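RECORD TYPE: inverse folding
INPUT: structure tokens
STRUCTURE:
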């Protein structure tokens, strides 16, 4: 068998990728050629020794296999790695975020949940700031309208009291005959004018109340609009199902480095049926 170790550099500045992957492969040699498509990836270089265990022997080399073929095999390995081992990078366009080197799609989507949550928080913060000035302006006008109502109601109440007192005084004077007819008529005129002003002040109170109601309606509508836009932010990003852009980065053969290529004898044994199986 053939043991090979290689370093594969991947680079793409636009995606912030600058990573070297190290691979270890073990493959059989058939008809004088390594079977890279059937190669077994190993997590690390296995421990080796130069002599077989007691009771075991090294199998003979396949026909036509010798050290002179290593240069050709290195070239074939680089070509195979370039074609079959591209690095896949996932990008979420709206979040402007790409996966890290070697990050699987599932892991990337899990990380995107945090990125999306932070993005939503920032968008909501900006939205609240946008509406805050408008809402505070309406709140200030509402407070002013409430003060105006209190003032108008106080004036109307006082005018009502004054008018009732004038009416009572005029009637009492007329019944008791303490005033002349002319004086009584003057008092009646003053009382009538006072009643007219009382009616006007009642109308002022009503207008102030209507103004406050309009402001409360404006505030409620603006607050409702803010909430709708907040909700729209919440549903705008679904990182679990959003379509991701996929980019495949291939390493150049000239940039690859074959760290090791060596003939390897892997332990085998015979089973009860005489078949050769990995020990």
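DESIGNED SEQUENCE:
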């Amino acid at each position: 068998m053939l043991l090979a170790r290689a370093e594969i550099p991947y680079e793409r500045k636009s995606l912030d990728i600058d990573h070297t992957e190290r691979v270890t492969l073990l493959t059989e040699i058939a008809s004088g050629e390594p079977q890279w498509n059937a190669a077994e990836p190993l997590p690390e270089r296995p421990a080796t020794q130069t002599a077989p265990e007691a009771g075991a022997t090294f199998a003979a080399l396949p026909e036509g296999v010798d050290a002179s073929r290593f240069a050709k095999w290195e070239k074939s390995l680089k070509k195979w790695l370039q074609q079959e081992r591209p690095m896949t990078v996932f990008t979420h366009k709206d979040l402007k975020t790409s996966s890290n080197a070697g990050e699987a799609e599932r892991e990337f989507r899990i990380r995107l949940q945090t990125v999306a949550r932070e993005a939503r928080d920032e968008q909501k913060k900006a939205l609240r700031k946008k509406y805050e000035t408008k809402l505070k302006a309406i709140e200030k006008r509402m407070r002013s309208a409430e003060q105006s109502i209190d003032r108008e109601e106080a004036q109307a109440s006082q005018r009502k009291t004054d008018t009732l007192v004038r009416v009572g005084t005029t009637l009492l004077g007329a019944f008791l005959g303490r005033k002349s007819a002319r004086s009584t008529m003057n008092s009646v005129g003053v009382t009538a004018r006072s009643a007219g002003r009382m009616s006007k002040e009642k109308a002022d109170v009503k207008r102030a109340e209507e103004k406050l109601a309009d402001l409360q309606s404006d505030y409620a509508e603006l607050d409702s609009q803010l909430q709708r836009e907040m909700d729209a932010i919440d549903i705008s990003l679904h990182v679990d199902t959003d379509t991701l852009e996929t980019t495949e980065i291939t390493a150049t053969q000239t940039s690859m480095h074959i760290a090791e290529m060596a003939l390897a004898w892997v332990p085998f044994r015979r089973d009860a049926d005489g078949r050769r199986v990995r020990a």
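NOTES: The longest strand covers residues 2-12.
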